[in-house]
Design goal:
5 strands; alpha+beta; elongated; Alpha-Beta Plaits; 2 domains
């Protein structure tokens, strides 16, 4: 890798570190190529990325970014999982590490907040952005549904009373 390629990689990693809602750092020693491809595919499904980069270049890219505090985690065979959704990368990495003991979570960062292993697990337990949006929409729609039901209930009651009277008369 020549100097221009290294500079391009550092710039790309710096952009990823700046734009990501969460970055999770893990050791991946012993993962097969197929396992790594599976991990990447799972991350891609939620809009995240998995990157393996030289630690020295990643540390240079981290300088000046909000998640610069994770530079100390970059030692050995590390893989970086990133996503704009603050929960997605942590969820996928946690689930994958649970099923595959070769992937060991070291920690991560959520913006300027450094996360240890327990922090990554806590973030992974949080609802995703889509789940939160669905919950909020449900909370907003519930009163409207109740009002519509209340408005429609008297008409329904009158109709059933009229039907009962009609049946008795016949």
């Amino acid at each position: 890798m020549d100097r221009a390629q290294k500079e391009a990689l550092v710039e790309e990693l710096g952009q990823i570190f700046t734009d990501s809602g969460v970055v999770v750092v893990s050791h991946y020693a012993g993962l097969t190529v197929a396992e790594m491809q599976d991990y990447r595919a799972q991350m891609r499904e939620v809009g995240g990325t998995v990157r393996v980069a030289k630690n020295k270049l990643a540390k240079i890219a981290l300088d000046g970014t909000p998640c610069a505090s994770i530079a100390g985690l970059l030692d050995g065979m590390t893989v970086l999982a990133c996503s704009e959704d603050p929960v997605a990368a942590a969820k996928v990495t946690q689930a994958y590490a649970k099923d595959n003991d070769k992937l060991v979570i070291l920690g991560g960062a959520m913006g300027e907040t450094e996360l240890d292993v327990a922090g990554v697990k806590a973030v992974a337990a949080m609802p995703s952005r889509e789940e939160l949006i669905a919950s909020i929409v449900g909370c907003i729609a519930a009163p409207a549904a109740n009002i519509a039901g209340s408005i429609g209930a008297p008409a329904s009651n009158i109709a059933s009373i009229l039907e009962t009277i009609e049946e008795k008369a016949a």
